[in-house]
Fold this protein.
Amino acid sequence: MAIEGVEIVKAAGYIGAGLAMGLGAIGPGVGEGMVAAKACEAIGRNPQEAGLLTRTMLVGQAVSESTGIYSLVVALLLLFVV
Amino acid sequence: MGLEVETAVKIAAYTGGGIAMGLGAVGAAIGEGYTAARANLAVSRNPEISGDIFKNMLVGQAIAESASIFALVIAILLLFMNTGTPTMLKAAAFLGAGFSMGFGAIGSGIGSGYPGGEACYGISEQPAAGSQLTTNMLIGSAVCQTPAIFSMVVALMLIFIDFGNVPLTPTWAAFMGAGLSMGLAAIGSGYGGGLAAGASCEGIARTPQTAASVTTIMLVGQAVAQTPAIFGLLVSFILMFKSFPESSALATPMALLGAGLCMGFGGIGPGIGNGMAAEGAVRWVARNVEHANDLMRIMLVGQAVSQSTAIYAMVISLVLIFVV
């Protein structure tokens, strides 16, 4: 099977997209979970502040999400653009 | 090097069996070790009821062991079963089965150690709640084993189902991707479910009267934590059962392998994260049961956000399977 250069590039792109999104999903998953856990603890300690604590949690999780979005963008680029 | 098909199938079966048992032993050993460590602390704290603690430790460890027993079963099947007519496709399927069971047993093994350990320690703190603790430990550990069971189902399917006359390329990559997708995604869910179950045992030991609320939120939290493993199972089934047209390009099998890696790895983080969120919620429902509803709500919101990267990973996987 004679593999063309173009073929190898495409194949590598697909594996790269898979690894980029796959590995990139690990960090935000764990990080956002930690945020949610601590938010639960905070609300357990101080239930009156539930609204403020929920908002803080969501903002913190959004920041943690950013690297996940970068991974998604790179994966889509590798799939469709490169 | 001309590799005969029979030899290749045997190589794949033995390698797969080795991976299945080797990786499958890791999780259960760590989990049982954690249970024993907490049991030791419990006995040192309260030596008079060491009998109860010891019994509870053995029961908890038995459940954690089940993940590695699944792996042993798959390994023995791969080593000794007569597989019929050897084809290269079978070789890929056996390797995929090994990955699926091997990786899949890690998370469940470690996770099942947490409820066992916390139940043992809880009995030393609150001997009157002993039977409640044992019950909760059994429920939590059982849910925690479900990713390992999914992994075993996928492994058995890859070993036993006759997929008929499908073309070798790219289906070899689909089978390996199926194994990776299920096995890797099960790691996070198994571990995360264990965190939630451990916190529930600790909470019930602290305040036995809140046992019902604690168990409820533990089950809800564990259910959400299992969803990455279910995504992995879904992608695994699609890869196994979709018929792919024959293709001599290198890109197509690599896309399917990439899909398996993507969903597999992508399930790890959100599984762990959802478990952490559930752990926090369960721990604090035990301490503040009047606000159980608030805690349930914020746990679900937090878990939903944490789930998002697993959904991105599933989208990319499906794009790799269906679009490119």
Remarks:
- The CA atoms of residues 43 and 50 of chain A lie 6 Å apart.
- Chain A has one domain: 5-80.
- Chain A touches chain B through 53 residues (CB under 8 Å).
- Helices of chain A lie at 5-24, 26-45, 50-80.
